[in-house]
Amino acid sequence: MILEAVGIEKWYFRKKGDGNRFFAVNQTSLKLEPGKIVVLTGRSGSGKTTLMNMMAGLLSPDAGSIQADGQDLYAMNDEELSRFRNRHMAMIPQGADVFKDLTVMENILLPQGIYPKDRPKGTDAAAEAQLLLERLGIAGLSGVPARELSGGERRRVCTARALAAKPDILFADEPTSDLDDESMNAVLTLLREAADSGAAVFIVTHDAEALTFADTSWRMNAGSVEETRGSTD
Ligand SMILES: Nc1ncnc2c1ncn2[C@@H]1O[C@H](COP(=O)(O)OP(=O)(O)OP(=O)(O)O)[C@@H](O)[C@H]1O
Ligand SMILES: [Mg+2]
Question: Is 233 within a domain?
Answer without folding.
Answer: no
